[in-house]
Specification:
Layout (H helix, E strand, L loop, with lengths): L8 H12 L4 H13 L4 H43 L3 H16 L3 E8 L4 E8 L4 H4 L2 E3 L3 H9 L3 E3 L12 H10 L3 E9 L8 E10 L7 H35 L6 H29 L4 H12 L3 E4 L5 E5 L13 H14 L3 E3 L2 E8 L2 E8 L7 H41 L5 H10 L8 E8 L2 H14 L4 E6 L2 E7 L7 H16 L3 E9 L2 H20 L6 E3 L5 H6 L5 H19 L3 H10 L4 H8 L3 H15 L6 H16 L41
Helix pairs in contact: 1-2, 1-3, 2-3, 3-4, 3-8, 3-9, 3-12, 4-8, 8-9, 8-12, 9-10, 9-12, 10-12, 12-13, 14-15, 18-22, 19-20, 19-21, 20-21
Length: 693
C-alpha cells in the first residue's frame, strides 16, 4: 500500500509558531519549500503558499507598527528630557540623541551660529567618529546647512556628494568624506521673527546616514516638530541663563534702586511662570493628553476663551477660562488660512479682529489654528506661552495622526481583500473586521474617489477621515481610493456624502476629485456589490463630464437606471414623465401618447397626426402644452433621449392612456412659441380638431 500524502496542517502550525516568535522572513519562506519537498498535494501546497504570503504580510505590518511605537516612545522621552533639563548643554545633547533615535540614522548633529566669528560651528554630535567632522566650521551659506539657514526650510539629499543644489567647499567636503556621510536631512530651529518677517534661525538640526537613503515626508515632519520644540527649549534655557546672570549682577547693585529690583522680581516671576507653564504642557504630552486638555490649560493660564480649529475652520475644541466647554461656530476657512499663513511666515502669533491666532504646524503643513478670544495685547511671556501651546498641540495632533494612519493602513488591507474576493471567506473577513474595530455587518456607505492628483489622494482620504467626526476607513484599490463610512444611524444619503467628500478631498489635494457613492450596504458580499455599482457610477460621471463632483447612481437620471442594481424604474418614469402623467389623469388628455407618437415618427408632425388620427394642429397644440409642462429643452438631444427611455419603460411596465370621447370644441389660436425654442413647422391653416390635448 502507498503511504498517505503528507498533511499541510503541521506546516500551517509551524507558520504560526514562526510568526509568534518573530522569525526572519527567510524562515517563513522556507516553509513553502519544505512543503514542496515533502510532497504535499497541490491543493494543500497552494494553501501553504497562501498562508506563508499572509504570514509575511502580517510580519511586515507588525514590524511597521512596532517601528511607529518606537518613534512615538522616543518623542515622549524627548519631551521628558526637555522638561527635566535646565542646563543648555544637557538640552542640546538630549535633542541630538533623540533625533538620531527617532529617525534611526547613523549620526545626528546640531550646529549653532557663532555671532562673534560670523560663522557656524558643530556644537553637539551623536554617533560621529571623525574628529575632523566634529571640529568642522561652516561659513554662512555653505553646504546643506547654509541653505537651510538661509531659507528657513528643511532640505534633504539622498547623496550629498553628487547634489549640486548646495555650495560645496573643500572644507565641508573633507569633513563629510572623513565621516563617510551620504544621505543628510537638515531642518531649521526657528524662533521669533526678524525684520524681514521670517522666523529667526537659531540653529540647524541634522540626521545623516552613511548610505544612500530617501527621507520620507513623515520623517521630515517628525524632525521638524522636534526642532520646533527644541528651539523653544533652547530659548528657554538661554533665557534662564540670562536671568541667572542678570540676577547675579543685580544682587550686588544698590538696594536703594527699588524700581530696578521690582522690575527684576517681575521678570523673574514671569520667567518662573513661563517655566511652570512649559512643564505643565509637557506633562500633558507625557500623560497622553489631547488637544482639549491643551485648550483647558492655556485658557486657564491666559484667562481667556480659547478655540482650536482645523484647516477647514471647523472647531476641534472650545473652552472657557474656568475649563467648561461651549459650542463654537466654524470660522471662515479663507480668513483663517490667511491669518494662519501670516503666523506661519512670521513664526509668531498674530492679533486680528480682537483675537490672537497662532498656526499649528508640522513642517510646512497647517494642522490647526489656536484662536485666543482676547481683544487686549499679550505681554511677551504670555505670547510665548501661547506660541508654545501651538507647538505642543502640533505634536499631539501629529502623534494622533501617526497612530491613525498606521491603523488605517492595516484596516485598508482588510478592505482590499474584501473587494478582491468577497466570496472566498465572508465569515473570516467579518471576524478580521471585528478584531480591527470594523463591524462589516453594520450599514456602511461606499464611496469611490479618483483624481488626477492620484499620488496625493490616498493621504488626503486618511486626513479626511482623521480630521472630522466621520467614522470610517480608506484603502487604495484599482487606481481609485475607496472609503467605507459607518452610517452611524445618521441616514446620510450616499449622494450627499459623495458631494461632501468631493469638496473636502478636492481642498486637501488642491485638485478636482470625483466621488461616486452607494449604500448603505452591510456584509462582505453587499459591500463588494455596492463598490462595483459605485465604480460603474464613477465611470458614468467621467463620461458625462462631471469631474470634480459627487453623486450616486440615482442622481444620474436614465444612466442611473441603466447602471444601478436597484433599477428603480417606477421612480425614474415618475421623475421624467410625472407632469404629463398627472395632467393626463386630471384632464383626460393624451399628452404621453402624443409624445410617444411624435418621437416614434422621428419628429414628423404629419406622421404623428396619422398615428394619432387627429389634425396636425392638434399635435402642435399638444406639443405646446408639453413644452409648458416639461420646459423648453424637452426636445434637446439629451433630454429627448431621457424622455424616450422613460416612455418605453412606461409602456413596458403596463402604462396605458385612455381617450374618452369628448364633445367637439373650437380650438383657440395657440400662443406663439417661446423665444429660442426650435419647434416643428406649422401648417398654413389651423382648423378645429376632434380631440385636443
Amino acid at each position: 500500500m502507498s503511504e498517505p500524502s503528507p498533511s499541510a496542517a503541521p506546516l500551517l502550525g509551524r507558520l504560526l509558531d514562526l510568526l509568534a516568535d518573530d522569525a526572519p522572513a527567510e524562515e517563513l519562506g522556507a516553509v513553502t519549500s519544505e512543503a514542496r519537498a515533502a510532497g504535499v498535494p497541490a491543493a494543500d501546497l497552494a494553501e501553504v503558499e497562501r498562508a506563508a504570503a499572509t504570514a509575511l504580510r502580517i510580519r511586515g505590518a507588525l514590524r511597521q507598527h512596532r517601528r511607529r511605537e518606537l518613534q512615538l516612545t522616543a518623542l515622549f522621552d524627548t519631551a521628558g528630557d526637555l522638561a527635566a533639563s535646565r542646563d543648555l548643554d544637557d538640552v542640546l545633547k538630549a535633542i541630538v540623541r533623540r533625533a538620531r533615535m527617532l529617525l534611526g540614522t547613523d549620526t545626528a548633529y546640531l550646529t549653532l551660529p557663532d555671532e562673534e566669528a560670523g560663522d557656524t560651528y558643530m556644537r553637539v554630535t551623536d554617533g560621529s567618529v571623525s574628529v575632523l567632522f566634529q571640529r568642522l566650521r561652516l561659513e554662512l551659506g555653505e553646504g546643506l546647512g547654509g541653505l537651510v539657514a538661509q531659507t528657513a526650510s528643511p532640505y534633504a539629499t539622498p547623496d550629498y556628494r553628487t547634489d549640486d543644489r548646495f555650495r560645496h567647499t573643500r572644507n565641508i567636503n573633507a569633513g563629510v568624506l572623513d565621516e563617510g556621510l551620504v544621505a543628510i536631512l537638515g531642518v531649521p530651529l526657528l524662533l521669533g521673527s526678524s525684520r524681514g518677517g521670517t522666523g529667526k534661525v537659531i540653529g540647524v538640526l541634522f540626521a545623516a546616514d552613511r548610505a544612500a537613503r530617501v527621507f520620507s515626508p513623515d520623517e521630515v515632519a517628525l524632525l521638524c516638530s522636534l526642532a520646533a520644540h527644541a528651539a523653544i527649549a533652547i530659548d528657554t534655557a538661554r533665557a534662564l541663563d540670562d536671568t541667572r546672570t542678570a540676577l547675579a549682577e543685580l544682587a550686588g547693585a544698590n538696594e536703594e534702586l527699588a524700581g530696578a529690583n521690582a522690575a527684576v522680581r517681575a521678570h523673574s516671576a514671569a520667567m518662573q511662570r513661563a517655566e511652570e507653564a512649559h512643564d505643565r504642557l509637557t506633562d500633558l504630552v507625557l500623560r497622553g493628553g489631547d488637544v482639549k486638555d491643551v485648550a483647558v490649560s492655556v485658557a486657564g493660564l491666559l484667562d481667556s476663551p480659547l478655540t482650536i480649529h482645523d484647516p477647514g475652520g471647523r472647531p476641534l475644541a472650545a473652552v472657557r477660562p474656568d475649563g467648561t466647554g461651549f459650542a463654537a461656530d466654524s470660522m471662515d476657512a479663507g480668513w483663517l488660512a490667511g491669518t494662519a499663513e501670516e503666523s506661519r511666515h512670521g513664526a509668531r502669533a498674530v492679533h486680528r479682529d480682537g483675537r490672537w491666532i497662532c498656526a499649528v504646524l508640522a513642517g510646512h503643513e497647517l494642522l490647526a489654528s489656536l484662536v485666543l478670544h482676547r481683544p487686549d495685547r499679550l505681554d511677551d511671556s504670555d505670547r510665548r506661552l501661547f506660541e508654545r501651546a501651538a507647538v505642543v498641540t502640533g505634536l499631539l495632533l501629529l502623534l494622533r495622526r501617526t497612530v491613525a494612519e498606521t491603523e488605517n493602513r492595516i484596516r485598508g488591507e482588510l478592505i482590499s481583500d474584501l473587494l478582491a474576493d468577497p466570496e472566498r471567506d465572508p465569515a473570516g473577513l467579518a471576524e478580521r473586521g471585528r478584531r480591527l474595530g470594523i463591524d462589516l455587518d453594520r450599514p456602511h456607505l461606499v464611496l469611490v474617489a479618483e483624481s488626477a492628483a492620484r499620488e496625493r489622494l490616498g493621504g488626503a482620504a486618511m486626513r479626511y477621515l482623521f480630521g472630522g467626526d466621520i467614522h470610517g476607513v480608506s484603502a487604495e484599490h484599482a487606481g481609485t481610493v475607496v472609503l467605507l463610512i459607518d452610517c452611524d444611524g445618521q441616514g446620510t444619503p450616499a449622494g450627499a456624502a459623495a458631494r461632501a467628500a468631493a469638496a473636502q478631498l478636492g481642498h486637501l489635494v488642491q485638485a478636482p476629485v470625483t466621488v461616486a457613492g452607494t449604500g448603505p450596504a452591510s456584509g462582505a458580499r453587499e459591500l463588494a456589490a455596492a463598490h462595483a455599482e459605485a465604480a460603474r457610477c464613477l465611470r458614468a460621471m467621467r463620461v458625462l463630464g462631471r469631474e470634480g463632483e459627487g453623486a450616486d447612481v440615482g442622481e444620474l437620471g436614465f444612466l442611473g437606471v441603466v447602471l444601478g442594481d436597484a433599477k428603480d424604474v417606477d421612480g425614474f418614469v415618475t421623475a421624467v414623465l410625472g407632469p404629463l402623467l398627472r395632467y393626463d389623469e386630471r384632464r383626460g388628455t393624451h399628452l404621453v401618447r402624443t409624445l410617444r407618437a411624435y418621437f416614434g415618427a422621428g419628429g414628423s408632425l404629419i406622421r404623428a397626426k396619422d398615428e394619432l388620427h387627429v389634425h396636425v394642429n392638434t399635435v402642435v397644440q399638444r406639443l405646446d402644452r408639453i413644452q409648458v409642462l416639461l420646459g423648453r429643452d424637452w426636445n434637446e438631444p439629451d433630454r429627448a433621449l431621457e424622455l424616450q427611455l422613460a416612455l418605453r419603460l412606461h409602456l413596458l411596465s403596463g402604462g396605458r392612456e385612455s381617450c374618452a370621447p369628448r364633445p367637439p370644441a373650437v380650438l383657440s389660436r395657440a400662443a406663439p412659441p417661446a423665444a429660442g425654442r426650435r419647434r416643428p413647422p406649422r401648417p398654413p391653416s389651423r382648423p378645429s380638431a376632434p380631440c385636443s390635448g
